[in-house]
Amino acid sequence: MEAKEIIEKGSKVYSRPKLLTDNTMHYCPGCSHGVVHKLIAEIVEEMGMEDKTIGVAPVGCAVFAYNYIDIDWIEAAHGRAPAIATAVKRLMPDRMVFTYQGDGDLAAIGTCESIHAANRGENIVIVFINNGIYGMTGGQMAPTTLEGMVTSTTPYGRRIDLNGHPLNMGPLFAQLPGTCYVTRQAVHTPAAVRKTKKALRQAFENSMKSLGTSVVEVVSSCNSGWKMSPVKANKWMEDNMFPHYPLGDLKNTVTSDSKK
User: Which of 29, 37, 129, 185 has the fewest CB atoms found within 10 Å of its own CB?
Assistant: First the structure.
């Protein structure tokens, strides 16, 4: 099927998935959400699952994801998306079900739901946007905030003795027996975008093969919360976020035979 609409503007050519709506996105300039939205829309179209995909979005910057990707959506209470996704997938196993969560949602109020859904091996995809801060509510410290990182609630930087260590969710997911695929990617360059799309595609395919829980973490910038320009935020992310949250697969139990 033809999955993309070609838009020509002067000498530049853009492609837009048909599942992306015409609504203007509310995300801040430089935000990663729009890129990840596009990738999800492309993958759903390419898999021919437009009418069988259900997304679950909780509270956070992506709470209005339903306004941009034209699939079925369910709104969940803060942190509860994996619990809702569990129910949906069990009731309708032929559906492709995923959650779309930020670090303040997944790694704080939703830690219980996220860890236990993954430990049970629910056949869902967890898309985890990690920008190390509460982006929607004023830039407060999140569980994933780095040591020394300045936020509205840590104006002098995060202190380990006072605020504890940054919570690294990827390795936690990877050690659970119910996860089949845990990967950490980014979308700050064209090459990174391609890798993230490949990772998301594998995760969605895993869910439809009932292989267990797949987690795709996308390390992202939040130039508004970080008080930086988009360019400086990407550079800061490369210099500071990537060393603590290195990119790549953390777990992949899917054999070459199962991919065929």
Answer: 29
Would the pLDDT of 257 be above 70?
no
Would you kindly state where each structural domain of the chain is located, as residue ranges?
A: 4-259
pTM of the entire structure? Answer: 0.92
Average pLDDT over residues 213-224: 96
Please, what's the largest Cα pairwise distance for the chain? 55
Structure tokens at 90: 């069990």
User: For the domain 4-259, what is the CATH superfamily, name and number?
Assistant: Thiamin diphosphate (ThDP)-binding fold, Pyr/PP domains (3.40.50.970)
- φ, ψ for residue 112 (rounded to 5)? -60, -55
Q: Are the C-beta atoms of residues 217 and 185 closer than 8 Å to each other?
A: yes
60-63: which pairs have CB atoms within 8 A and are 24 or more residues apart?
Answer: 60/101, 60/102, 60/104, 60/105, 60/135, 60/136, 61/27, 61/31, 61/33, 61/102, 61/129, 61/135, 61/136, 62/33, 62/100, 62/101, 62/102, 62/129, 63/136
Give one DSSP letter per residue of 230-249, joined into a string: HHHHHHHIIIIIHHHS--EE
What is the crossing angle of helices 111-120 and 81-91, to 10°? 30
Q: Which amino acid is at 119?
A: N
pLDDT reported for residue 1: 39
Mean pLDDT for the chain overall: 93
What are the tens digits of pLDDT across the range 46-76?
999 999 999 999 988 988 899 999 999 999 9
Enter the tokens of residue 114. Answer: 């996220």
Q: Which residue has the higher pLDDT, 4 or 210?
A: 210
